[in-house]
From TrEMBL:
Span list, region Disordered: 1-80
Gene source species: Allorhodopirellula solitaria
Gene label: rsmA
Any one GO CC term of the record: cytosol
Main location: cytoplasm
Chain intervals with Low complexity compositional bias: 42-60
Alphabetical keyword list: Cytoplasm, Methyltransferase, RNA-binding, rRNA processing, S-adenosyl-L-methionine, Transferase
Name under which the protein is recorded: Ribosomal RNA small subunit methyltransferase A
UniProt EC number: 2.1.1.182
Gene3D superfamilies given in the database record: Ribosomal RNA adenine dimethylase-like, domain 2, Vaccinia Virus protein VP39
Ribosomal RNA adenine methylase transferase N-terminal domain residues: 128-313
Source species, domain of life: Bacteria
Residues bound to S-adenosyl-L-methionine: 121, 123, 148, 169, 194, 228
Amino acid sequence: MNAPDDVSPSDEPTDPLPDESASESVEPIRLDRDRSRHRRPPASSDAGPAWPAQPPAEQAKSGRTSKKRSPSPYDAAAADNSHAAYIRAKRDQQGPRQTVSYLSDRLASAGLRPVSKYGQNFLVDLNLVELIARSAELTQRDLVLEIGTGVGSLTTIMAEQAGAILTVEIDKNLHQLASEELADYPHVKLIQGDALRNKNSLRPDIMESVRDAKARLPEDGRFMLVANLPYNVATPIISNLLHESPPPDRMVVTIQKELAERMTASPGTKDYGALSVWVQSVCHAEIVRILSPGVFWPRPKVESAIIRLDLDHARRDAIPDLAFFHQTVRALFFHRRKFLRSVVISAFKGRLDKSAVDEVLASLGHGETVRAEALNLQQIQDLVEALRQAELAADN
């Protein structure tokens, strides 16, 4: 579910500047489109359930009780003794669910309609919903965080592949609908509420649930964010998750096209800025597919994109202080048309004097007229670390 993104000024580059010194580029991850690789492997017995089973009384309280039904195709799947086969049969019986007619009828039957303030623009092309899940290359050893459950269409597809899913929905009414749709999936846990505690952090209980579930899955299992992110929270969700412990090993999300272009932008381009540097300093980034407004209901006013971010643990571990790095990068691009010296002096006012700033810039070969947008990733990383060391020396 999506809605136009509101992004802080520090993450919004607007003016292009040619960069003749830029030398670093990020090697994109090439996705394997072979669908057969993404089928759920046979059930493993080396890990217990990701979520503790609820007693019947608690199931009734949460609204996650299984609905009575007549004999169906997925009852016959029991002979397979495979939960994946059960899920596939259930999906086959339900038929196409992520269509305009299905969604409008489903919401109308509950007396609901899309709520714009929650970014409720539903992806109504089932092939694209499946592309999101397929691009994540999930296995039963993986844990998925989904933010924006909607009616659970992407969730049910991922349930066939992932070991555990934690899905968060801010809308109480949609949360109730999704709870009914997902009641038969014991490895799916639903949380109702805002995923963010504030702009700069996630709700603590969400990451606590992530750590708890990950501990119940095999040690080599991965943690992923896979979601149709509401655009108005896409930037803080992605940025904050990169700070978290554990951070997602992979993110496959639908976001605003403009935001995806900023995440993958090269030095010297109009889209290159703090968000570009932060994401590319710790991830390999690739735009998987551009999506037109017509594949959503209701239609947004902007184009969208599916983006895949693969965490580079070596790059992330090479940054001595992630919080300092992120904060300083944001400051460097806050006034992108100002010269670098002026920006650094302003950002470190009261922490470094002008002579110390000049010494740092001179040691790195940056002249008086250089701007932050002209520096490549390595140059910015070297600058931030030099400033950190200078500040530590000044404090001693």
